[in-house]
Structures are given as structure tokens and as C-alpha cells.
Design brief:
It is built from nine helices and eight strands. The strands form two sheets. A five-stranded parallel β-sheet has the order 2-3-1-4-8, with helices on both faces. A hairpin with a 5-residue loop joins strand 5 and strand 6. The two termini are about 15 Å apart. The protein has a single domain, classed as P-loop containing nucleotide triphosphate hydrolases (Rossmann fold). The chain is of the alpha/beta class and about 220 residues long. It binds BIS(adenosine)-5'-pentaphosphate and magnesium ion (MG).
Length: about 220
Amino acid sequence: MPTYIVMLGPPGVGKGTQAKVLASQLELPHISSGDIFRENLKDGTEMGKLAQTYMSKGELVPDDVTIAMIRERFERPDCKNGAILDGFPRTPAQAVALDKMLAVFGGKVNMVPFIMAPDEVLIERLTGRWTCRASGHIFHEKFNQPRQAGKCDIDGSELYQREDDKVETVVKRIQVYLQQTTPLIEFYKSQGTLVEINGAQPIDEVSAQLLSFLNK
Ligand code: AP5
Ligand code: MG
């Protein structure tokens, strides 16, 4: 049976950081909707340019565009054994669309780690984040420092600060999360897949808690 895991939680809580840990432990692809939009922008595609008009304001990209983009990603053969989804779904319409897409593979959402932390923690994490230009590896100037400032430990590419990590945009992203994404907590609770994770702990402790749930 394929294994599909949906990382749920506010901006900056550590979805991407922990998704990479799970993807390597479980040998599954890490599918980050935000990373796919950013790659499209870098490649200058029409979809990337359209997505950027929403991302730069901290708003969600419309459901139809986002769902079509994820559907296309699922058409690649590496997803048929499962995937770690990060940043998708984030509206009820996307969650319903995901269930339909997975049914095609005879799969379903198996586990939804819901990672939480207070707003002041999220703001400190996002405003100190450094992201790798080549593949989106994630660092933090205090909590997860690269060995050499400005350079990715994994592939040596340049580290940059995301445009949407400015404090005004971060505050907007948290509001949008509260309005549009929190209904998914009840959605997955009612499916019996939600597990609550304390995201205010150090990175390794969050990973340990996640892996202990997975082994159950
Ligand atoms: P997206 O890229 O998904 O951003 P997000 O959800 O706002 O989440 P982030 O990536 O900012 O945070 P994260 O939880 O991954 O934290 P990270 O691990 O990096 O989306 C961006 C935009 O794209 C959206 O605003 C929207 O416009 C669009 N979009 C994307 N998906 C969409 C969708 N489905 N529908 C519509 N629009 C969509 O960690 C943050 C920092 O904290 C890092 O520096 C990290 O090193 C550090 N850190 C992590 N964990 C810890 C810890 N435990 N202790 C200390 N530091 C930590
Ligand atoms: Mg992320």
C-alpha cells in the first residue's frame, strides 16, 4: 500500500524541514507546492509568474491552478508508492481534490502531522530563514546555521531570504492560514488521520516525535 503523509501547520512551523526528514527516512518524494511555484518562477513559466502575484502578497494561489499543478506532479511515476506532501492541501477544496487524486493510485491520506507553535516563534523562524537557491534546502541564522554563511551545506549553492519572509507578509500569511487552512484540522480529525505535534521544540525533538508516531 502506498503511504501519503500531509504536513499541516502554519507558515514557518517547520513543515519543509520535517518533510525532508520523513522523505529521506521513508524514501518517498517530498512534494512542496511552494517549492514547485518558486521553481516555476525561476524558470519563467506563465504559471510561475501568475503564482508570484499571489505569493508576494502572502495570499493563496487559486485552487484551480494549484490543484492542476499537483495533479501534474502526481503523474510522475515516483509518486505511486507514496509521498510527503508539504503545503498542499491548504483549503477544503484542495483536500477533497487530493482524496480523488490518490484514489487513482489505490491510496489515501494515511497520516496528517499537525505541527503547531505560537505566532512569535513562527515570526522569528521565518525572518531568520535562509533558503538554498538550487533546491530549497532550509537553514536558519540561529537555529540551523549553515557551516559557511550564505552557502548551502548540501549543494554549495547560494542561500537567499524569501521575499515573502518580510515581517508584513509573514503576518498576512498567518492570517490567511487561520482563515483558509485551519478548517482542514477538523477535516482530517474526522478522518482519524490527524496527529498533533509540538513544533515549538528543537528540530531534532520534533523529528523524534514525528518518527515515533510513524512507527506506531
Ligand atoms: P510555502 O512555501 O508552502 O510556505 P508556508 O506554508 O508559508 O510555509 P513555509 O515554507 O514558510 O514554512 P515551513 O513550515 O515549511 O517552515 P520551514 O521548515 O521552512 O508557500 C508559500 C506561498 O506559496 C503561499 O503563501 C502561497 O502563496 C503559495 N502556495 C503554496 N502552496 C499553496 C497551496 N496549496 N494553495 C495555494 N497557494 C499555495 O522552517 C522555517 C524556519 O524555521 C527555517 O529557517 C528552519 O530552519 C527553522 N526551523 C524549522 N523547525 C525549527 C525548530 N523546530 N526549531 C527552530 N527552528 C526551526
Ligand atoms: Mg516550507
